[in-house]
Amino acid sequence: MTKTYKLYIGGAFPRSESGRVHPVHDARGRFLANAAQASRKDLRDAVAAARKAFDGWSGATAYNRGQVLFRVAEMLEGRREQFIAETAAVEDLSVEGATAAVDTAIDRMVWYAGWTDKITTVLGTTNPVAGPYFSFSVPEPTGVVGALAPRQSSLLGLLSVVAPVIAAGNTCVVVAGDRALPAITLSEVLATSDLPGGVINLLTGHVAELAPWLATHADVNALDLTGAPETLRPELERSASETVKRVLPVGRGEPDWTREPSLKRLRTFTETKTVWHPVGT
Amino acid sequence: MTESITSPWDYAPAPESRDVAGLRPSYRMFVDGEFVDGSGQSLTSVNPATEETLAEVAGASAADVDRAVTAARAAFESTWATMPGSERAKYLFRIARLIQERGRELAVLETLDNGKPVKESRDTDVPTAAAHFFHHAGWADKLDHAGYGANPRPLGVAGQVIPWNFPLLMLAWKIAPALACGNTVVLKPAETTPLTALVFAEICQQAGLPAGVVNILPGAGDIGAELVAHPGVDKVAFTGSTEVGKSIQHRLAGTATRLTLELGGKAANIVFDDAPLDQAVEGVVNGGFFNQGHVCCAGSRLLVQESIAEELLDRLRTRVSALRVGDPLDKNTDVGAINSAEQLSRITELADTGEAEGARRWTSPCPLPSQGYFFAPTVFSEVHQSMRVAGEEVFGPVLSVLTFRTPEEAVTKANNTPYGLSAGIWTEKGSRILWAAQRVRAGVVWANTFNRFDPTAPFGGYQESGFGREGGRAGLEAYLDV
Predict the structure, then answer these.
(1) Which of A106, B81, B185, B276 has the highest count of CB atoms within 10 angstroms of its CB?
(2) Do A66 and B134 touch (CB under 8 A)?
(3) Residue B132 shares a structural domain with residue B30
(4) Using the beta-carbon criterion (under 8 Å), do B134 and A63 form an inter-chain contact?
């Protein structure tokens, strides 16, 4: 039985309000499924859901967020076989290759689960200011992050983009294009983990159509454009400047996702807040 | 006002079922992944609330120490130190989950063995132990980011000796960072509270932890002395009395063995005249009587500004009168049993010196159970710095109250101790909190709160309260060759 693939917004699985679908093919061009093709209205709904979830998620303790992320990793592992099959299909990988990618993706999630309560101790500091003041600086989540799923690595790349965003306490809207099947399955994993609805919202559709709407949306605070087509990127970055969105600096092409990540994503999607307080009797 | 409440409110009994503890008649020690008989003197674990025998526990001998250290060394070299951090992390995550899953069992067993109120073992000891493993699991593959340079190496075999006041929690504070950093351990639980450590050993088996990575040796002080002096041990971590800590430091002097000590304390809880009084009273009660005062960081010296001393004492006595002392398994109990007859006589003896030296003794009028080791919460006022109750660690539900006039005097008195583990500051004025926190010579300072513990926050003392930290990024240093 072929499944109906839908969007994931605010913890629910709606069809596109536009009623549009687009066919998803495997790497050899064979039809796999009709996925929902998100509209501008769907994208706005997703941003609204992410904003609504932000207070709760950013306000949760780091310990709580860590346990939720670890739970996501446990749920991912439970669907390991499905992810291997789908990753192999959309990326045209051997079973061994797909297995390695999926296992690294699960490890990546565990790695970020451990970061939630360490970001502050590694990136924060007290400031030895020259005066009777106690001053400290801590990283805080930036807000709603818009991300484009990497075009090559359908699960490992996607998780490597999404996990640091939510580990740091942000919420996000992710747009997945042609290789969306593992992304859709990921949304089903998220829905059955302890992740609050709206923390991750996943839209399938045409990246070239959706990305400019994401980049111009005034309530999006930051962008990860790793998955943007090279030709589209400059225009998206220009749009981001309208509301001074933070844009993750990325190189050309896709990074080697199998390597242990740096802290660049955690740093980009956090703001440093400095607090001063007088000292004296 | 003090006489308005002379007995605790009547509460219907709300006992936790002791069956949940899965108590067995005998427990064996854990060496090289197996439960084995010890060749030392076996121990008898007693429920301090009823004086009944709980279980026979295999005791380790010097030969067992040797076996355990050998097993830990083999595990260190063959698997644990060479395993990728991301794999070590998974074992620690699993251990954290298993502690959570078996939380109720562990809480009840801890209360039976230790005498602490079940609401404390349930709400503090066990969840904080699980959190400690969870936090350190995340460090296992992030040590490069901990600030000790690239690729910091473990030390080797850690010999760890822990006290009886927080048996499972102290185990977690010791084992979690050691394992996260790639060390293997031989741990000796306290003579009177070995049971949860042996259930923890079972959890290690359930987590599939490689044999020899964790070894648990029940025994008395002599086995602790064997362990810390064993030539195969690279690192010693001890939590306990300052007296024993000094003897360990003395014993290891001139050797290459690394050492961290978490010892006694005589914390000052400083209450300024602008403090939120009700909140301060709650904090002072928590600081002095939490876990029957068996807390190395207990706020056992109350320093109160003279102008509010009388009012605070009034409110304090009223509040302490309402503490329910008794059956630790009752979920309403605030103060449980003293851990052992030996400790009870130590507290009784030291409290008597307070009276003899001229302090004013007030004892909660609460009824005490006829059986078991109990000590009614006691407050000494008109205490002077020269008195023994002002200087020595009582490690029981006894609070000494001193007064001060100026912030400078408060800080001077707070620092007038060889210890330096913790301190409390109570004032509505933020600048004064920070001013006092800068001047107090203590490793942990709580402001408008007390007894806060978190795996992300380093804990440990200045001066004769020991050296080294447990928890957070700073705590990793104790188990890394840096």
Answers:
(1) B185
(2) yes
(3) yes
(4) yes
What pLDDT, on a 0 to 100 scale, did the predictor assign at position B8? 55
Return d(Cα B138, Cα B154) in angstroms, integer.
Answer: 16
Chain A residue with CA closest to B274: the answer is A281
Residues 95-154 of B with CB under 8 A from A: 131, 134-135, 137-142, 145-147
For chain A, what percentages of helix, strand and coil (3-state, to nearest 5) are there? 45, 20, 35
Separation of alpha carbons B433 and B386, rounded Å: 27
**Domain A21-278 CATH superfamily:** Aldehyde Dehydrogenase; Chain A, domain 1 (3.40.605.10)
CA nearest A64 in B: which residue?
A: B131
Q: Over the stretch A247-267, which tens digit does the pLDDT of each residue have?
A: 999 888 899 999 999 999 999
Query: pLDDT tens for residues A207-239?
Result: 999 999 999 999 999 999 999 999 999 999 999
Burial grade of B380 (CB within 10 A; 0-12, 13-18, 19 or more): buried
In A164-193, which positions are buried (b, 16+ CB within 10 angstroms) versus exposed (e)?
A: bbbbbbbbbbbbbbbbbbbbbbbbbbbeeb
CATH code, domain carrying B472: 3.40.605.10
Q: Work out the burial of residue B425: count CB atoms within 10 Å of its CB; fewer than 13 is exposed, 13-18 middle, 19 or more buried.
A: buried
Provide the number of CB pairs (under 8 Å) joining chain A to chain B. Answer: 68
Token duo for residue B36? 């084995």
Which domain range does residue B357 map to?
268-447
Judge whether residue B7 has pLDDT over 70: no
Nearest-Cα distance to chain A for B312, in Å, is 21
